[in-house]
Amino acid sequence: MGSLVLPALAGVGVLAGAATQRATGLGFALVAAPFLVLVLGAKTGVGLANLLSAVLCALVLLRTWRALDWRRLAWLSVPGLAAVPAGAAVVAALPEPVLLVGVGSLAVAAMVLVRFSTRATALRGRSGAVAAGAMSGFMNVTAGLGGPMITVHALAEGWDMRRFVATAQGYLLLVNVVSVAAKGPPDIGPAGLTAATVLVLAGAVAGEWLAARVDPALVRRLMIAVAILGGLAAVLRGALMW
């Protein structure tokens, strides 16, 4: 029975992460990655988070693509994709605990900036989109945390929730596909991948239900809280592994 506890926790994390991302626009990797890393190890866990996030983004985008902002997507995606090779090289070169603590700290700092600052001017406009995209691409391939910097930029720019959800899916789909290609697919076997995919689908359905019933202001607070918790989880994982 004890041997089932960790896989069950990972399953709950995948289910909750998928629901969170469908309702808020991001959050799958932030919620699911700590559990996946706990069960599979840092590199395999982050790799699986990248792969499942790509699947989830494609599913959500099928429902939200009409609200996608193609110009913003381009400004985020070009620097984000350009940063992926550098992130993959860092993953291969540095110890995992150092990566997790550093990237998690950046994610928390970014969310705290948005939460407690009335003007996150550094990440506004085209230059802000380029900076957010580059940092997000790097963070996504190193620790599965592509969402926080996109959230900082979106909140600084005052995006409406529908446009944010759609554009975030397009961006994260691209960077996760490239991240998986740069590092290779996770080695978890067909059965594990099938089970994880089913949980992603179930979570997306639950998130669809939540998105139609939750107040946008509450969704915004949830989005910030999830991002902060994900960053703290990364720091904690790294500290425990050090």
UniProtKB/TrEMBL annotation:
Keyword field: Cell membrane, Membrane, Transmembrane, Transmembrane helix, Transport
Annotated Pfam families: TauE
GO CC, alphabetical: plasma membrane
Compartments reported by the entry: Cell membrane
Chief location of this protein within or outside the cell: membrane
Presence of keyword Transmembrane: yes
Domain of life, per lineage: Bacteria
Protein's membrane topology: Multi-pass membrane protein
Spans traversing the lipid bilayer: 28-61, 73-92, 98-116, 188-210, 222-240
Family statement: Belongs to the 4-toluene sulfonate uptake permease (TSUP) (TC 2.A.102) family.
Protein name (Swiss-Prot/TrEMBL): Probable membrane transporter protein
